[in-house]
Amino acid sequence: MLSDLTLKDDCLSVIISGSGIADFDYFWLRDNARDPISFDSRSHQRELFTCEVDANIKPFTAVLVNNGMALQIKWPDMDDSVCYEGNFLAAYALPTPMLAMPEPTIWEAARLEDDAIRIAHLEVIADNGVGRLLDIISKNGFAVVTGTPRNMAAVSDLTDRIGYARHTIFGGLWEFEADENMSDSAYTTKELRPHTDGTYSHDAPGLQILLCVDYDAMGGASIMVDGFCIAAELKRLTPEIYADLTRIDVTGIYKGDGVILRAQRPIFRTDRDGILVQVSFNNYDRDTITLPRDDMRALYAGIRAFDRLANDRRFQWRYTLQPGDMLVFDNWRVLHGRGPFCGRRKMAGSYINREDYESAVRVNGLI
Ligand SMILES: [Fe+2]
């Protein structure tokens, strides 16, 4: 509900019930007019050629309409008046926060309840099931979907329910089998220490899906580490190391299969407000680089501190996936690894881009 509309020299002032007095810059109001000439409501795209609007534009008139539920402005450069809904104005009364995702619940392994991260496949494919799955992932960083059909079609189906498969050097949907009898390192049964994928990509995969198709082995527990928890721990214990890891770029590299991919970002990537956005760490794929001596030493101190915590059981959730268990995790937050094993273990999986994961979170009403 709007009231007390005043046209000031450079802004329109109005009281919005529940929000108080709000001042709207005239140029902003003209730029965000939702009339059919300025804005295509079907495509949600701006039609206005903003740079041609007079920098000092001011309404001829502005009046409250529809019992204060909206206001109507007559602009000098338009024939018809433009209606601004009260809800629209209320949403933009304050600077818009870049609220990308729901607030994460950071965890140490012992504090993570199994019930909090497990969901049955039948529930995921039921109505609103993807929303429940995404709710678990956005809070905890990962989920285990149980009772999943053990085939690539199930990976494809879940991928498509969230977004679409990201095509990389590994293809779109992939399958791999680690086998101690095979010599290629791709089939290693050695321990895989916690890491994130795609440190060599400017836009690392957002979600990773890993389905256990077959398991006839000893060992091979999956390891999940909350990178945001490691960040919080470092910030608390050694703030100078945390600050260095938000500042110093690390280069990731993938060389082989006809490509040389390289990308750089800090282990802790933060936004301009200092909020942690992404954790990237893969000691396997870290390129050989030389930095100025102080930065080099600071980076190594950071890597030692980070990787000691990532390999500390206190931070490691461990679970041996059984056939039909599907891990779905946020690759911008959670590090993944696997214990050593003997025997046979066959997995299928896919990547989903970060923007598509975020979109699914929004579409499912989680933010
Ligand atoms: Fe990986």
Q: Can you walk through the features of this model?
A:
The structure is a single chain. With 367 residues, the protein is α+β, with helices and mostly antiparallel strands. The protein folds into 2 domains: 2-91, NE0471 N-terminal domain-like, CATH 3.30.2020.30; 109-363, 4-Layer Sandwich (Double-stranded beta-helix). It has 10 helices and 22 strands. The chain has helices at residues 26-31, 86-91, 114-117, 121-124, 129-140, 152-162, 227-237, 239-247, 293-310, 354-363; strands spanning 2-7, 11-16, 20-25, 39-40, 45-46, 61-65, 70-74, 82-85, 118-120, 142-146, 173-179, 192-195, 207-219, 222-226, 249-256, 259-266, 268-270, 276-279, 316-319, 326-330, 334-338, 341-352. Strand 15 and strand 16 form a beta hairpin. It is elongated and about 80 Å long. The model has no long low-confidence stretch (mean pLDDT 95). It binds fe (ii) ion. Fe (ii) ion (FE2) binds next to loops. Fe (ii) ion binds at residues 195, 197, 336.
